[in-house]
Amino acid sequence: MSFAIVGTAVLAAGLSALAQAPDHKQIESLVDAHAAQWRDVSKQIWNYAELGYHEEKSSALLQRELKAAGFSVEAGVADEPTGFIASYGSGKPVIAILGEFDALPGLSQKTEPERDPVIAGAPGHGCGHNLLGSGAALAAVAVKEYMAEHKVAGTLRYYGTPAEEGGSGKVYMVRDGLFKGVDVVLHWHPGDGNAVINGGALAVISAKFTFHGVAAHAAMAPDRGRSALDAVMLMGNGIEFMREHIPSNSRVHYIVSKGGVAPNIVPDLAQMDLMARNPSNETLQGIWKWIENIAQGAALMTGTTMQMEDIGSDANIVPNAALAKVAQRNLEEVGGYTMSADEKDFALRLQKSFPAGMAPDLDQTEKVEPLRPIDPNAPAASTDVGDVSWAVPTIGFTTATFVPGSAAHTWQAAATAGTTIGQRGMVVASKAIALTVVDLFTDAGLVQSAKADFDAEVKGKTYYSPIPKGQKPVIDYRGK
Protein backbone atom coordinates (compact mmCIF):
# COMPACT_ATOMS: atom_id res chain seq x y z
CA MET A 1 0.00 0.00 0.00
CA SER A 2 1.34 3.46 -0.89
CA PHE A 3 1.88 6.22 1.71
CA ALA A 4 -0.81 8.23 -0.05
CA ILE A 5 -3.34 5.44 0.39
CA VAL A 6 -2.31 4.94 4.03
CA GLY A 7 -2.65 8.67 4.66
CA THR A 8 -6.08 8.72 3.04
CA ALA A 9 -7.21 5.76 5.13
CA VAL A 10 -6.01 7.37 8.36
CA LEU A 11 -7.71 10.64 7.46
CA ALA A 12 -10.96 8.80 6.67
CA ALA A 13 -10.82 6.98 9.97
CA GLY A 14 -10.23 10.25 11.77
CA LEU A 15 -13.16 11.91 10.02
CA SER A 16 -15.37 8.91 10.81
CA ALA A 17 -14.46 9.11 14.49
CA LEU A 18 -15.10 12.84 14.46
CA ALA A 19 -18.49 12.30 12.85
CA GLN A 20 -19.41 9.81 15.57
CA ALA A 21 -18.28 12.02 18.44
CA PRO A 22 -21.31 13.13 20.48
CA ASP A 23 -22.59 16.66 20.08
CA HIS A 24 -22.26 17.96 23.62
CA LYS A 25 -23.89 21.28 22.83
CA GLN A 26 -26.99 19.54 21.52
CA ILE A 27 -27.14 17.33 24.60
CA GLU A 28 -26.99 20.36 26.89
CA SER A 29 -29.68 22.03 24.79
CA LEU A 30 -31.92 18.98 25.20
CA VAL A 31 -31.50 19.22 28.97
CA ASP A 32 -32.40 22.92 28.85
CA ALA A 33 -35.45 22.17 26.70
CA HIS A 34 -36.92 19.87 29.36
CA ALA A 35 -35.59 21.65 32.45
CA ALA A 36 -38.75 23.62 33.27
CA GLN A 37 -40.85 20.45 33.34
CA TRP A 38 -38.46 18.66 35.67
CA ARG A 39 -38.00 21.66 37.91
CA ASP A 40 -41.75 21.47 38.43
CA VAL A 41 -41.49 17.73 39.16
CA SER A 42 -38.77 18.41 41.73
CA LYS A 43 -40.99 20.97 43.48
CA GLN A 44 -43.94 18.57 43.56
CA ILE A 45 -41.77 15.90 45.17
CA TRP A 46 -40.45 18.53 47.60
CA ASN A 47 -44.06 19.20 48.59
CA TYR A 48 -44.83 15.47 48.99
CA ALA A 49 -41.82 14.91 51.32
CA GLU A 50 -42.45 11.17 51.77
CA LEU A 51 -40.35 8.85 53.94
CA GLY A 52 -38.45 5.82 52.65
CA TYR A 53 -40.51 2.99 51.13
CA HIS A 54 -43.61 5.20 51.43
CA GLU A 55 -42.82 7.55 48.52
CA GLU A 56 -46.02 6.54 46.72
CA LYS A 57 -46.79 9.95 45.16
CA SER A 58 -43.17 10.74 44.32
CA SER A 59 -42.51 7.37 42.69
CA ALA A 60 -45.80 7.43 40.76
CA LEU A 61 -45.07 10.93 39.44
CA LEU A 62 -41.61 9.96 38.20
CA GLN A 63 -42.99 6.81 36.58
CA ARG A 64 -45.74 8.73 34.76
CA GLU A 65 -43.33 11.35 33.46
CA LEU A 66 -40.83 8.77 32.24
CA LYS A 67 -43.55 6.71 30.54
CA ALA A 68 -44.77 9.85 28.81
CA ALA A 69 -41.20 10.46 27.61
CA GLY A 70 -41.07 7.05 25.93
CA PHE A 71 -39.59 4.76 28.60
CA SER A 72 -41.00 1.36 29.53
CA VAL A 73 -41.41 1.00 33.30
CA GLU A 74 -41.25 -2.02 35.60
CA ALA A 75 -42.67 -1.13 39.00
CA GLY A 76 -42.44 -2.75 42.45
CA VAL A 77 -39.02 -4.33 41.87
CA ALA A 78 -37.01 -6.12 44.60
CA ASP A 79 -40.09 -6.32 46.88
CA GLU A 80 -40.00 -2.51 47.15
CA PRO A 81 -43.43 -1.01 46.51
CA THR A 82 -41.96 2.32 45.35
CA GLY A 83 -38.94 0.93 43.50
CA PHE A 84 -38.95 0.83 39.70
CA ILE A 85 -36.80 0.60 36.57
CA ALA A 86 -37.45 2.71 33.46
CA SER A 87 -35.78 1.52 30.24
CA TYR A 88 -35.21 2.71 26.68
CA GLY A 89 -33.40 1.06 23.79
CA SER A 90 -31.88 -2.41 23.52
CA GLY A 91 -28.58 -4.24 23.44
CA LYS A 92 -25.18 -3.20 24.68
CA PRO A 93 -23.87 -1.18 26.36
CA VAL A 94 -26.30 -0.88 29.26
CA ILE A 95 -25.84 2.45 31.04
CA ALA A 96 -27.84 3.20 34.19
CA ILE A 97 -28.67 6.39 36.09
CA LEU A 98 -29.75 6.25 39.75
CA GLY A 99 -32.60 8.35 41.11
CA GLU A 100 -33.73 8.82 44.73
CA PHE A 101 -36.79 10.59 46.13
CA ASP A 102 -37.18 9.91 49.86
CA ALA A 103 -37.35 12.61 52.53
CA LEU A 104 -36.10 12.76 56.12
CA PRO A 105 -38.20 12.81 59.31
CA GLY A 106 -38.66 16.05 61.21
CA LEU A 107 -37.17 18.41 58.60
CA SER A 108 -40.31 20.06 57.26
CA GLN A 109 -39.40 23.59 56.19
CA LYS A 110 -40.83 26.35 54.04
CA THR A 111 -38.71 27.96 51.33
CA GLU A 112 -37.73 30.68 53.79
CA PRO A 113 -34.28 31.64 55.15
CA GLU A 114 -35.47 31.39 58.76
CA ARG A 115 -36.60 28.20 60.52
CA ASP A 116 -40.32 27.82 59.74
CA PRO A 117 -41.76 24.31 59.24
CA VAL A 118 -44.57 23.70 56.79
CA ILE A 119 -45.91 21.22 59.35
CA ALA A 120 -44.04 20.95 62.65
CA GLY A 121 -42.42 17.54 63.04
CA ALA A 122 -43.28 16.43 59.50
CA PRO A 123 -40.74 15.09 56.98
CA GLY A 124 -38.75 17.37 54.69
CA HIS A 125 -36.20 17.09 51.89
CA GLY A 126 -33.17 17.95 54.00
CA CYS A 127 -30.93 15.91 51.68
CA GLY A 128 -32.41 17.26 48.45
CA HIS A 129 -33.62 13.96 47.06
CA ASN A 130 -36.51 15.77 45.39
CA LEU A 131 -33.82 17.27 43.17
CA LEU A 132 -31.81 14.06 42.93
CA GLY A 133 -34.55 11.88 41.44
CA SER A 134 -35.85 14.62 39.17
CA GLY A 135 -32.43 15.71 37.94
CA ALA A 136 -31.43 12.13 37.15
CA ALA A 137 -34.67 11.68 35.19
CA LEU A 138 -34.09 14.95 33.32
CA ALA A 139 -30.70 13.62 32.20
CA ALA A 140 -32.27 10.32 31.14
CA VAL A 141 -34.94 12.05 29.02
CA ALA A 142 -32.36 14.24 27.27
CA VAL A 143 -30.14 11.21 26.53
CA LYS A 144 -33.12 9.23 25.26
CA GLU A 145 -33.99 11.95 22.75
CA TYR A 146 -30.39 12.17 21.61
CA MET A 147 -30.23 8.37 21.18
CA ALA A 148 -33.44 8.34 19.13
CA GLU A 149 -32.33 11.14 16.80
CA HIS A 150 -28.82 9.81 16.23
CA LYS A 151 -29.75 6.11 16.31
CA VAL A 152 -27.35 5.42 19.17
CA ALA A 153 -27.25 1.72 20.05
CA GLY A 154 -27.57 0.47 23.61
CA THR A 155 -29.90 0.38 26.60
CA LEU A 156 -30.54 3.32 28.90
CA ARG A 157 -32.00 2.66 32.33
CA TYR A 158 -33.24 4.85 35.13
CA TYR A 159 -33.40 3.10 38.51
CA GLY A 160 -36.01 4.59 40.84
CA THR A 161 -34.37 3.69 44.14
CA PRO A 162 -36.39 4.27 47.34
CA ALA A 163 -35.36 4.52 50.98
CA GLU A 164 -31.75 5.61 50.57
CA GLU A 165 -31.98 7.32 53.96
CA GLY A 166 -31.43 4.28 56.15
CA GLY A 167 -33.56 1.76 54.25
CA SER A 168 -30.81 0.29 52.03
CA GLY A 169 -33.11 0.29 49.01
CA LYS A 170 -30.35 -0.31 46.45
CA VAL A 171 -28.88 -3.18 48.47
CA TYR A 172 -32.00 -5.26 47.87
CA MET A 173 -31.89 -4.36 44.17
CA VAL A 174 -28.28 -5.55 43.96
CA ARG A 175 -29.25 -8.70 45.85
CA ASP A 176 -32.07 -9.43 43.41
CA GLY A 177 -29.65 -9.21 40.49
CA LEU A 178 -31.20 -6.07 39.02
CA PHE A 179 -27.78 -4.68 38.06
CA LYS A 180 -26.56 -7.82 36.28
CA GLY A 181 -25.60 -6.96 32.72
CA VAL A 182 -25.29 -3.23 33.47
CA ASP A 183 -21.99 -1.85 32.17
CA VAL A 184 -21.74 1.49 34.01
CA VAL A 185 -23.81 3.31 36.63
CA LEU A 186 -23.99 7.08 37.15
CA HIS A 187 -25.33 8.93 40.18
CA TRP A 188 -25.31 12.38 41.73
CA HIS A 189 -26.13 14.07 45.00
CA PRO A 190 -27.11 17.58 46.07
CA GLY A 191 -24.46 19.61 47.88
CA ASP A 192 -23.05 23.11 48.25
CA GLY A 193 -20.33 22.80 45.57
CA ASN A 194 -19.63 21.23 42.19
CA ALA A 195 -17.37 18.16 42.13
CA VAL A 196 -16.97 14.60 40.89
CA ILE A 197 -17.72 11.85 43.42
CA ASN A 198 -15.10 9.18 42.76
CA GLY A 199 -15.31 6.61 45.52
CA GLY A 200 -15.31 7.37 49.21
CA ALA A 201 -18.31 7.50 51.54
CA LEU A 202 -18.46 5.49 54.75
CA ALA A 203 -19.62 1.91 54.91
CA VAL A 204 -22.42 1.72 57.47
CA ILE A 205 -24.30 -0.97 59.40
CA SER A 206 -27.39 -0.21 61.45
CA ALA A 207 -29.79 -2.22 63.59
CA LYS A 208 -32.29 -2.07 66.41
CA PHE A 209 -31.10 -3.82 69.58
CA THR A 210 -34.15 -4.76 71.64
CA PHE A 211 -33.73 -6.02 75.19
CA HIS A 212 -36.47 -7.97 77.00
CA GLY A 213 -36.52 -8.10 80.79
CA VAL A 214 -39.06 -8.59 83.58
CA ALA A 215 -41.33 -5.83 84.86
CA ALA A 216 -41.75 -5.27 88.59
CA HIS A 217 -42.60 -2.57 91.11
CA ALA A 218 -39.43 -0.49 91.27
CA ALA A 219 -39.80 0.19 95.02
CA MET A 220 -41.68 -2.77 96.53
CA ALA A 221 -40.21 -5.65 94.50
CA PRO A 222 -37.16 -4.56 92.46
CA ASP A 223 -35.57 -7.96 93.12
CA ARG A 224 -38.25 -9.53 90.94
CA GLY A 225 -37.44 -7.28 88.00
CA ARG A 226 -34.82 -7.48 85.28
CA SER A 227 -34.31 -4.09 83.68
CA ALA A 228 -34.12 -3.95 79.91
CA LEU A 229 -33.12 -0.28 80.26
CA ASP A 230 -30.11 -1.29 82.36
CA ALA A 231 -29.03 -3.47 79.44
CA VAL A 232 -29.34 -0.58 76.99
CA MET A 233 -27.33 1.70 79.27
CA LEU A 234 -24.63 -0.92 79.78
CA MET A 235 -24.45 -1.44 76.03
CA GLY A 236 -23.96 2.29 75.59
CA ASN A 237 -21.19 2.28 78.23
CA GLY A 238 -19.49 -0.61 76.51
CA ILE A 239 -19.54 1.21 73.18
CA GLU A 240 -18.01 4.32 74.75
CA PHE A 241 -15.11 2.24 76.12
CA MET A 242 -14.76 0.51 72.74
CA ARG A 243 -14.26 3.84 70.91
CA GLU A 244 -10.65 4.15 72.15
CA HIS A 245 -9.68 0.92 70.45
CA ILE A 246 -11.21 1.23 66.97
CA PRO A 247 -9.80 3.21 64.00
CA SER A 248 -10.16 6.94 64.59
CA ASN A 249 -12.02 7.44 61.30
CA SER A 250 -14.88 5.26 62.56
CA ARG A 251 -18.26 6.59 63.65
CA VAL A 252 -20.70 4.99 66.13
CA HIS A 253 -23.91 6.81 67.01
CA TYR A 254 -27.14 5.72 68.63
CA ILE A 255 -30.35 6.72 70.35
CA VAL A 256 -32.45 5.08 73.05
CA SER A 257 -35.64 4.64 71.06
CA LYS A 258 -37.52 2.87 73.87
CA GLY A 259 -36.67 3.22 77.54
CA GLY A 260 -39.65 2.08 79.57
CA VAL A 261 -43.09 3.44 80.38
CA ALA A 262 -42.76 4.88 83.92
CA PRO A 263 -39.93 5.36 86.43
CA ASN A 264 -41.66 3.27 89.10
CA ILE A 265 -41.88 0.22 86.81
CA VAL A 266 -38.77 -1.82 86.06
CA PRO A 267 -38.64 -1.61 82.23
CA ASP A 268 -39.29 -4.98 80.64
CA LEU A 269 -38.53 -3.64 77.17
CA ALA A 270 -35.92 -1.13 75.98
CA GLN A 271 -34.33 -0.49 72.64
CA MET A 272 -31.26 1.13 71.14
CA ASP A 273 -31.11 2.17 67.46
CA LEU A 274 -27.45 2.17 66.46
CA MET A 275 -25.32 2.93 63.39
CA ALA A 276 -21.60 2.19 62.93
CA ARG A 277 -19.44 3.49 60.07
CA ASN A 278 -15.93 3.18 58.64
CA PRO A 279 -14.38 3.99 55.25
CA SER A 280 -13.65 0.28 54.74
CA ASN A 281 -16.44 -2.22 54.32
CA GLU A 282 -14.07 -4.93 55.53
CA THR A 283 -12.85 -3.05 58.63
CA LEU A 284 -16.44 -2.35 59.61
CA GLN A 285 -17.16 -6.09 59.84
CA GLY A 286 -14.83 -6.42 62.83
CA ILE A 287 -16.22 -3.32 64.54
CA TRP A 288 -19.77 -4.60 64.12
CA LYS A 289 -18.92 -8.01 65.58
CA TRP A 290 -17.51 -6.21 68.63
CA ILE A 291 -20.75 -4.22 68.98
CA GLU A 292 -22.77 -7.44 68.82
CA ASN A 293 -20.61 -8.94 71.58
CA ILE A 294 -21.14 -5.84 73.74
CA ALA A 295 -24.91 -6.17 73.29
CA GLN A 296 -24.84 -9.85 74.23
CA GLY A 297 -22.66 -9.05 77.26
CA ALA A 298 -25.11 -6.37 78.40
CA ALA A 299 -27.90 -8.93 78.25
CA LEU A 300 -25.88 -11.44 80.31
CA MET A 301 -25.04 -8.83 82.95
CA THR A 302 -28.68 -7.84 83.43
CA GLY A 303 -30.44 -11.19 83.11
CA THR A 304 -32.27 -10.01 80.00
CA THR A 305 -32.44 -11.26 76.44
CA MET A 306 -31.35 -9.38 73.33
CA GLN A 307 -32.82 -9.36 69.83
CA MET A 308 -31.07 -7.67 66.89
CA GLU A 309 -33.40 -6.77 64.01
CA ASP A 310 -34.11 -4.40 61.11
CA ILE A 311 -30.50 -4.62 59.99
CA GLY A 312 -29.46 -2.07 57.37
CA SER A 313 -26.15 -1.78 55.57
CA ASP A 314 -24.44 0.32 52.90
CA ALA A 315 -20.96 -0.36 51.55
CA ASN A 316 -18.28 2.22 50.76
CA ILE A 317 -18.13 3.47 47.14
CA VAL A 318 -15.51 1.83 44.91
CA PRO A 319 -13.59 4.46 42.88
CA ASN A 320 -13.05 4.31 39.12
CA ALA A 321 -10.22 6.36 37.60
CA ALA A 322 -11.32 6.00 33.97
CA LEU A 323 -14.83 7.23 34.69
CA ALA A 324 -13.61 10.00 37.00
CA LYS A 325 -11.47 11.49 34.24
CA VAL A 326 -14.33 11.83 31.73
CA ALA A 327 -16.79 12.91 34.43
CA GLN A 328 -14.44 15.70 35.55
CA ARG A 329 -13.96 16.87 31.97
CA ASN A 330 -17.71 17.00 31.41
CA LEU A 331 -18.49 18.79 34.67
CA GLU A 332 -15.87 21.42 33.85
CA GLU A 333 -17.43 21.79 30.39
CA VAL A 334 -20.86 22.39 31.93
CA GLY A 335 -19.52 24.67 34.66
CA GLY A 336 -21.46 26.08 37.60
CA TYR A 337 -23.86 29.01 37.76
CA THR A 338 -24.07 32.52 39.18
CA MET A 339 -26.87 33.32 41.61
CA SER A 340 -29.35 36.03 40.72
CA ALA A 341 -29.75 39.05 42.99
CA ASP A 342 -32.83 37.53 44.66
CA GLU A 343 -31.04 34.20 45.14
CA LYS A 344 -28.06 35.97 46.72
CA ASP A 345 -30.35 37.85 49.08
CA PHE A 346 -31.99 34.56 50.16
CA ALA A 347 -28.59 32.90 50.56
CA LEU A 348 -27.09 35.69 52.67
CA ARG A 349 -30.10 35.75 54.97
CA LEU A 350 -29.99 31.97 55.36
CA GLN A 351 -26.24 32.01 56.08
CA LYS A 352 -26.98 34.11 59.17
CA SER A 353 -28.25 30.88 60.78
CA PHE A 354 -24.87 29.16 60.34
CA PRO A 355 -22.28 28.87 63.13
CA ALA A 356 -19.57 31.53 63.08
CA GLY A 357 -17.02 31.01 60.31
CA MET A 358 -19.21 28.54 58.39
CA ALA A 359 -20.50 30.84 55.65
CA PRO A 360 -18.23 30.68 52.56
CA ASP A 361 -18.48 33.01 49.59
CA LEU A 362 -21.51 32.57 47.36
CA ASP A 363 -19.33 32.27 44.25
CA GLN A 364 -18.75 28.65 45.28
CA THR A 365 -21.71 27.82 43.00
CA GLU A 366 -19.74 29.11 39.99
CA LYS A 367 -16.66 26.91 40.45
CA VAL A 368 -15.86 23.28 39.72
CA GLU A 369 -13.57 21.66 42.26
CA PRO A 370 -10.49 19.81 40.96
CA LEU A 371 -10.50 16.03 40.98
CA ARG A 372 -8.95 14.90 44.25
CA PRO A 373 -7.86 11.49 45.57
CA ILE A 374 -9.99 9.93 48.29
CA ASP A 375 -9.08 10.90 51.84
CA PRO A 376 -10.30 8.13 54.18
CA ASN A 377 -10.01 10.51 57.14
CA ALA A 378 -12.16 13.27 55.65
CA PRO A 379 -15.68 13.72 57.05
CA ALA A 380 -18.14 11.70 54.98
CA ALA A 381 -21.63 10.25 54.95
CA SER A 382 -22.94 6.90 53.73
CA THR A 383 -25.08 5.78 50.81
CA ASP A 384 -26.39 2.56 49.34
CA VAL A 385 -24.79 3.64 46.05
CA GLY A 386 -21.78 1.92 47.60
CA ASP A 387 -23.32 -1.52 47.20
CA VAL A 388 -24.05 -0.81 43.54
CA SER A 389 -20.41 0.24 43.04
CA TRP A 390 -19.23 -3.19 44.24
CA ALA A 391 -21.28 -4.76 41.43
CA VAL A 392 -20.84 -2.30 38.54
CA PRO A 393 -18.32 0.44 37.60
CA THR A 394 -19.80 3.60 39.13
CA ILE A 395 -19.16 7.35 39.03
CA GLY A 396 -21.00 10.32 40.51
CA PHE A 397 -21.31 14.07 40.82
CA THR A 398 -22.30 16.57 43.46
CA THR A 399 -23.51 20.03 42.49
CA ALA A 400 -24.32 23.29 44.26
CA THR A 401 -28.00 22.90 45.11
CA PHE A 402 -27.66 24.23 48.68
CA VAL A 403 -26.55 27.64 49.87
CA PRO A 404 -22.76 27.45 50.28
CA GLY A 405 -21.93 26.32 53.80
CA SER A 406 -25.19 24.41 54.28
CA ALA A 407 -24.98 20.98 55.84
CA ALA A 408 -27.15 18.18 54.52
CA HIS A 409 -29.90 16.82 56.80
CA THR A 410 -30.78 20.31 58.03
CA TRP A 411 -33.72 22.68 57.65
CA GLN A 412 -31.43 25.00 55.69
CA ALA A 413 -30.87 22.31 53.08
CA ALA A 414 -34.58 21.52 52.98
CA ALA A 415 -35.45 25.17 52.43
CA THR A 416 -33.01 25.59 49.54
CA ALA A 417 -33.99 22.29 47.91
CA GLY A 418 -37.38 23.82 47.16
CA THR A 419 -36.00 27.01 45.56
CA THR A 420 -34.50 28.04 42.22
CA ILE A 421 -31.04 27.72 43.80
CA GLY A 422 -31.61 23.99 44.22
CA GLN A 423 -33.15 23.67 40.78
CA ARG A 424 -30.27 25.43 39.04
CA GLY A 425 -27.78 23.10 40.70
CA MET A 426 -29.98 20.19 39.62
CA VAL A 427 -29.69 21.23 35.96
CA VAL A 428 -25.89 21.38 36.26
CA ALA A 429 -25.94 17.76 37.48
CA SER A 430 -28.34 16.71 34.71
CA LYS A 431 -26.06 18.10 32.03
CA ALA A 432 -22.92 16.51 33.46
CA ILE A 433 -24.67 13.14 33.73
CA ALA A 434 -26.16 13.36 30.23
CA LEU A 435 -22.81 14.23 28.63
CA THR A 436 -21.08 11.36 30.40
CA VAL A 437 -23.80 8.84 29.52
CA VAL A 438 -23.64 9.71 25.82
CA ASP A 439 -19.84 9.51 25.91
CA LEU A 440 -20.18 5.99 27.28
CA PHE A 441 -22.69 5.01 24.60
CA THR A 442 -20.43 6.26 21.82
CA ASP A 443 -17.01 5.16 23.14
CA ALA A 444 -16.67 1.40 23.65
CA GLY A 445 -13.09 1.90 24.80
CA LEU A 446 -14.24 4.05 27.71
CA VAL A 447 -16.60 1.33 28.89
CA GLN A 448 -13.83 -1.25 28.69
CA SER A 449 -11.42 1.02 30.59
CA ALA A 450 -14.06 1.50 33.30
CA LYS A 451 -14.43 -2.27 33.62
CA ALA A 452 -10.66 -2.76 33.80
CA ASP A 453 -10.40 -0.18 36.60
CA PHE A 454 -13.28 -1.82 38.42
CA ASP A 455 -11.64 -5.25 38.23
CA ALA A 456 -8.38 -3.81 39.59
CA GLU A 457 -10.12 -2.04 42.49
CA VAL A 458 -12.08 -5.06 43.73
CA LYS A 459 -9.34 -7.65 43.14
CA GLY A 460 -8.63 -9.51 46.35
CA LYS A 461 -11.54 -7.88 48.17
CA THR A 462 -14.89 -9.36 49.14
CA TYR A 463 -18.21 -7.54 49.07
CA TYR A 464 -19.97 -7.88 52.40
CA SER A 465 -23.46 -7.05 53.61
CA PRO A 466 -24.65 -8.10 57.07
CA ILE A 467 -28.29 -7.95 56.02
CA PRO A 468 -29.55 -11.53 56.42
CA LYS A 469 -30.26 -13.26 53.11
CA GLY A 470 -33.87 -13.89 54.02
CA GLN A 471 -34.59 -10.36 55.19
CA LYS A 472 -36.97 -8.43 52.95
CA PRO A 473 -36.94 -4.64 52.70
CA VAL A 474 -38.10 -3.27 56.06
CA ILE A 475 -40.97 -1.17 54.74
CA ASP A 476 -41.75 0.49 58.08
CA TYR A 477 -38.15 0.94 59.25
CA ARG A 478 -39.02 4.51 60.25
CA GLY A 479 -41.98 3.31 62.29
CA LYS A 480 -45.58 4.33 61.84
From TrEMBL:
UniProt entry keywords in alphabetical sequence: Hydrolase, Signal
All residue ranges annotated as the Peptidase M20 dimerisation domain in the record: 205-296
Pfam families assigned to the protein according to its UniProt record, in alphabetical order: M20_dimer, Peptidase_M20
Keyword Thylakoid: no
Alphabetical list of Gene3D superfamilies matching this protein: 3.30.70.360, Zn peptidases
Family annotation (InterPro entries): Amidohydrolase, Aminobenzoyl-glu_utiliz_pB, Bact_exopeptidase_dim_dom, Peptidase_M20, Peptidase_M20/M20A_hydrolases, Peptidase_M20_dimer
Signal peptide residues on this chain, from the entry's feature table: 1-19
Keyword presence, Signal: yes
NCBIfam families given in the database record: amidohydrolases
Protein name, entry field: Amidohydrolase
Record lineage: Bacteria, Pseudomonadati, Acidobacteriota, Terriglobia, Terriglobales
